[in-house]
Amino acid sequence: MNNFEELLEDGIFEWKNFPSIARALVEVDKNNLSGEMMNLPSQYAYYHTLMVKAQTRANAAEAEVEKYKANKAKECQEVLASSGKKATAKDMENYVNSSVEYLNRCNDYRKLQEKYLTLKGLVQAVGIKRDMLIQLSSNERAETKLYN
Asked: Which comes out higher in pLDDT, residue 6 or 107?
């Protein structure tokens, strides 16, 4: 599956899969450090791209939540104004929070935010792997100098 959007939809990057994905991502073949280092840029690009797409989705969902919230608050003002009352901030907040649609949108946003943060953790793991590979490679070169 090469399509990033499909990967984000399929639930692969959920918390339940995170430990096994992270373990596989940071696994290092100490007998092939140069190969590991050569594969690292593509791993980073892949996971970083997924992270950016997940962040874009989360940001869009957050914007939709805010837009819905503003529209519901305005609706509350209009409803109360038609009955001769002025809506307070608390009235509008309660009106918005009591909306099932608002709660559903907030839940969707939280799920997308969780996916983004999970991918962000994987990208950070790739960075840590890079540092580890650099150190292992340096150690290997130093060891080679000792014996030559």
From this structure: 107
How buried is 23 (Cβ within 10 angstroms: 0-12 exposed, 13-18 middle, 19+ buried)? Answer: exposed
Of 60, 38, 31, 54, the closest CA to residue 123 belongs to: 54
Domain ranges (residues) in the chain: 4-147
Contact, 57 vs 108, CB < 8 A? no
pLDDT given for residue 91 in this prediction? 92
Rounded Cα–Cα distance for residues 120 and 126 (Å): 10
Residues 99-130: tens digit of each pLDDT:
999 999 999 999 999 889 989 999 999 999 99
Question: How many whole angstroms separate alpha carbon 127 and alpha carbon 16?
Answer: 22
Distances (CA, A) of 118 to 67, 87, 94: 26, 40, 32
Sequence-separated contacts (24+) of 76-81 with Cβ below 8 Å: none
Closest CA to 106 of 64, 55, 52, 53: 64
Q: Which of 107, 136, 101 is nearest to 31 (CA)?
A: 136
Question: Residue 102, Cα to own-chain centre: how many angstroms?
Answer: 22
